[in-house]
Amino acid sequence: MLGPVILAASRSDRMRRLISAAPVTKQVVDRFIPGETVDEVVPIIQDLTSKGLELTMDVVGEDITNPEQAEAARDAYLELIDRLKELELGTRAEMSVKLSMFGQALDGGHELALANVRPVVEAAAAIGTTVTLDAEDHTTLDSMFAIHDELRKEFPQTGCVIQAYLFRTEADARRLAANGSRVRLVKGAYKEPADVAYQQKHETDKAYVRILKVLMEGAGYPMIGSHDPRLISIAQELARHAGRKLDEYEFQMLYGIRSDEHLRLAAQGHRMRVYTAYGTDWYGYFMRRLAEKPANLLFFARSTLTKG
Any catalytic annotation for residue 134? Predict the structure, then answer.
C-alpha cells in the first residue's frame, strides 16, 4: 500500500520541502535526473547516442498556474530542440511532453495547450524528430487524445501514451492501432479511483499484455514502456508472432534504471529509447517513479551506495 502514500506525498508542499532538503536526496536524484539545464544534459545525450541508444527527452514540471509559465515550458522545449539541431542529433532524440505543462488545466486550457505544443511539434519535425504526448490522470485524457488527433493531421508521427491500469485503455488502444499511431504503453503512475482503474498489480500486468497484443497486431508503432523482464520477453514474442521487424517497434526505459538492459537490447538490434528527464522541478516526477513500484524505494536507496 505504499504507492498511494507516495503519490499523496508527491502533492504535499511540506513533503516536497523535507525531501528536497535531505542531503541524501541529491545523490539519488542526480543519478535518475541527470541535470537541470540543457547544458548539463548535452553530455548525457551524446554519451547515450554514441552507445547506439535513442532518447526521449522530458523537461520536468507540471504545476503551471498561469499562461506565462506555460509559455516558458514551451520555450524550454524549443531551446532543447535548437541544441539537438546544433549537435546534429535530431533524429536520435524525440520529446515527451505533459500537456499540463503547456496550460491544459488553466481556463481555456485545451486550446492553450494545443497552441503551446504546436510550435514544439513543428520544430521537432523540422529537425527530423517528433513529440510524444504523455498521459496524465484520467480526467485529462479526452483532451490529450483530441490534441493528439489534431496534431496528427499535419504531423502524423506525433505519438501518445496509454496506461494499462485504466479500464478504458484497451478501447483506446484499438482505435490508435487502427489509425496507425505511435503509442507508448506504460502501466500507469497516478492514483486513480477503483471505478476507472485496476488496483492490483496482477490485474494491471494482465491488461498490459492484452493491450500490447492489440498494438502489435495493429497498424501503428508500439513503444513498450517497461522495465519488467517478463513483459519485455512477452513483447518480443508478440512482435515475432505479429511478424514485426526489429525496427517496427521499440523498447523504452527510464534513464538510470536497468542501464545494462538498455545496452543488451540495443546490441540485439532492438530500438532502445531512454526516457531522460531534466529540469529544476524534479520532485513530482521523482515521486511518481517511486509510486510506480514502491520497491524502488529500496532500489533508489541502494543506488546512493553504487554507481553500477
Answer: yes
Which triple of cell numbers denotes residue 120? 514544439
Largest separation between any pair of C-alpha atoms in the chain: 51
- pLDDT above 90 coverage of the chain, percent: 75
Count Cβ atoms below 10 Å from residue 253 Cβ, excluding itself. 21
Identify whether 11 is a catalytic site residue: no
Q: DSSP character for 100? A: G
Q: What pLDDT, on the 0 to 100 scale, is given for residue 71?
A: 97
Which of 134, 152, 182, 205 is an active site residue? 134
User: Tens digit of pLDDT for each residue in 241-261?
Assistant: 999 999 999 999 999 889 999
Sequence-ordered list of residues with C-beta below 8 angstroms from that of 135, at least 6 positions apart, any chain:
141, 144, 160, 161, 162, 163, 186, 188
> Whole-structure pTM over 0.85, yes or no?
yes
Contacts of 281 (CB under 8 A, 6+ apart): 60, 61, 62, 63
108: CB partners within 8 A, 6+ apart: none
Residue 286: per-residue pLDDT: 67
104 pLDDT more than 70 = yes
- Catalytic choice (184, 271, 288, 289): 184
Q: What are phi and psi of 8, to 5 degrees?
A: -60, -40
